[in-house]
Amino acid sequence: MDLSNRIQGLTGGGSDGWDVFYKARRMIGAGVSVTELTQGEHDIRTDQSILDAMYRSASGGNTGYATVPGTNSMRDAVAARLTARTGVHTTRDNVLVTPGGQSALFASHHAVCDEGDVALYCDPYYATYPGTLRGVGAIPRAVPCLPENAFQPTFSDIAEKSAGAKSLLVNTPNNPTGVVYSRETVEGIARACREYDMWCISDEVYDTQVWDGTHISPRTLDGMAERTLVVGSMSKSHAMTGSRIGWIVAPEDVVENLFNLATHTTYGVPGYIQDAAVFALGEGLALEEKVAEPFRRRRAIGQNILAEQNVVGLVPSEGAMYMMLDVRSTGLSGEDFADKLLDAHHIAVMPGESFGASAAGHVRVAMTVEDSAFEASLKTLVGFAKELQP
Ligand code: PMP
């Protein structure tokens, strides 16, 4: 029996630069000690106070179906958060609660793209993007964002690819580059969406992790609230990756349609998880900063190490839990560099190529191990790059 073309074609085939990642996993499986700087997962767990709130809710009986678009208290909490952070008036009718940001990305594209529509995304990109677009039957089209522009998409980068496109997916603060889009970049995104009549899907799951500059949501710009779907999540801001809770903020009629989609797919998010998220959001900035602090610290450590040499280039490290390093001076591809580093020093980093052609010759370092191990690994990486100089 044949499976659908859609599911068989989802990943697009090929290793896409993930060989090093799987090799590191095999080494760990074989008992080798590997410092993993690959995945974007905190090295702290969900705060005990959030787990207590979850337990109180569940043991108090909140274990049945929750209302499909989200509980009123969670939708209100998300709406209040967006209003406070962006100044754009947002109500619960603009909010759909989803099982994580990934599901929100899928649902958003499902809402705006028909089968065969072209959906734009910026390259370098978060690994699931092209598959998510293919998953809703859209045709992914990359907008290359060049290292010369610190991987920020310019208006003309986008315009060049926009003819006939239905949507544009952007992500700031950015995974994998760690770049925070400037006002000029966000204005270019908004202009392209307006001029080419595209929906904007704005992935803002790292909005609490900003080290330099300011996070600007495209939804705040003129004429954008009616064409923007903001994807948010508790995963990164509150170290709740395993709780699977996120949201879409969108115009009311879009949310009404997303409600139908949720009814026929996820049937909502557990009420006790939503109660825990409401508690966490109620703790305000203090808790968000506590979760972001280790990355802020390690980014400073990394910047100091890189400032003392001129072999490895650092892409402006402005936000999110990653540093993108330019290793082109070694003459190696990101993939070869990462592979050799793993063999020689048992340090696993992600080749830039696994995030798209634009990040070739780079490696992404996740700042997800404790400070001294992070510092030692980065020093080793820099020393290794020096040895490889042609
Ligand atoms: N967007 C980006 C850019 C991400 O890096 C991630 C997770 N690494 C997600 C979305 C999805 O996160 P989650 O489903 O855990 O909310």
From TrEMBL:
GO terms for biological process: amino acid metabolic process. Belongs to the class-I pyridoxal-phosphate-dependent aminotransferase family. Pfam families: Aminotran_1_2 (PF00155). It comes from Litoreibacter arenae DSM 19593. It catalyses: L-aspartate + 2-oxoglutarate = oxaloacetate + L-glutamate. Residues 34-372 form the Aminotransferase class I/classII large domain. GO terms for molecular function: L-aspartate:2-oxoglutarate aminotransferase activity; pyridoxal phosphate binding. The lineage of its organism: Bacteria, Pseudomonadati, Pseudomonadota, Alphaproteobacteria, Rhodobacterales. Its EC number is 2.6.1.-. This is Aminotransferase.
